Write the structure tokens for this entry.
Amino acid sequence: MKIFTAEQIYAADLVTIEKQQITSDALMERSAVQIFNWIHTRMQGAPVKIHLFCGIGNNGGDGIALARHLQEHGYHIAVYVVNYSKKRSKDFLLNLERLKDRKVWPEFLDSKSILPTIGRDDIIVDAIFGIGLNRKPVDWVVKIMDHFYKSEAFVLSVDIPSGLYTDRSPEDANAVVKSNFVLSFQAPKLVFFLPETGIYSNQWEILDIGLDREFLQNTEADYQLIGKQEVLPFYIPREKFSHKGSYGHSLIIGGNKGKIGAVQLASRACLSSGSGLVTAYTPECGYIPLQTALPEAMVITGGLNFISEIKFDISPNVIGIGVGLGTNPATVKAFSKFLTTNKTSLVIDADGLNILAQKKELLKKMPSQSILTPHPKELERLIGKWKDDFDKLKKSKAFAKKYDCVVVIKGANSIVIYDDKAYVNTSGNPGMATAGSGDVLTGIITGLIAQGYEPLKAAIFGVYLHGRAGDIAVEQTGYQSLTASKIIQAVGMAFIDLFKIPEQVSEQKAD
């Protein structure tokens, strides 16, 4: 699913109006009807008071039009116009007159107004600002937002939480509505998925308002939202007469004394994602633990308690390197020498990234389309500090382009970046914020490349499978008890889940 910019959505509106020969207020009416249908389906006329706070632009017009439909169906409503400017959109004014024709008189709020009483069992519809906001709301409007929060009422935002920009983080964390639910028109907004801005949208849903399909299909988007339907075409089925050699040989390099578990997790995940063969390269202190805990993997050693040299006589299809590696000077030297001569595809994580950050000249030695999987601090060491999440994405794109690599920014919505494009993952949960989860991701991606997946597709698919396995596992463990090993155990179910239709998933949960 494409994630469009505000400018692209405005362009889609204009194209739709022209091609479908409708007026802009007819498009606004579609939006209002869709919101009403969503509310009415869930509430069925329940005697709950609904407070609609509407701005004086098109977002406010959506709210005013919604108020008319709610009133016509007998809902108990109160309508407020947040009068923050003398400028009003024509469609807002048109819908305001329609509402007045039905004897509904909004209360106009300004800096001197006494704010209405809102009960915690009431519902607030936030339609103050839309995607066109370009400056911080004035202080008295911020007080209205704070009033929402203190009321503890359920807040439903129209299109986007008021106060959020679409292209940068807010200057004031308190100058944004904290929404329980957002009903967004036609496409999700990037701000729903970034750490600094996603906190304002607890849940969201897309409403189809009939924007021109051809325009949406043909318009390039820099960001794509990745779910099951997006990754399913990536899946490579297995041939009947294939064998273990058909699915590649992965080499996992890492570990030092006390951190051999990272190599075990990555190697297990690599096997679970389908790599035909897996060899672990580790210091000698890891030999017995790995041979005992993971009999399916082969083991090569180099060094006693840490890796002091990287030499092997096998020909792997892909190498995952860095998990538990450590930064002992001898290890750094061995890693540097290895990177200078290696031509095999790489997945680099953890201390592999930290060494690259220390010796940035090595970045130019990486094979084309190497995959880097940093957590936020590791990313900062690579690209430098950023002023906000949008700046982080900009710098990550520039970094990926400069070194021709794939960057996986790990987080609640992990983002895969390559060639000026970004892919925002939707699977995963807070329980995956646990030791070893990143090692598992490294193993999964490595295993996919071994089987013949292109690096970018392996990164996108691997991030999705990793998150989906976490989602499946957490149903049995809960957030607090989810471990990296449990995620690995659920990778197989994540593959099976790719081919389940929603009804089958629902029936299984019901059972």
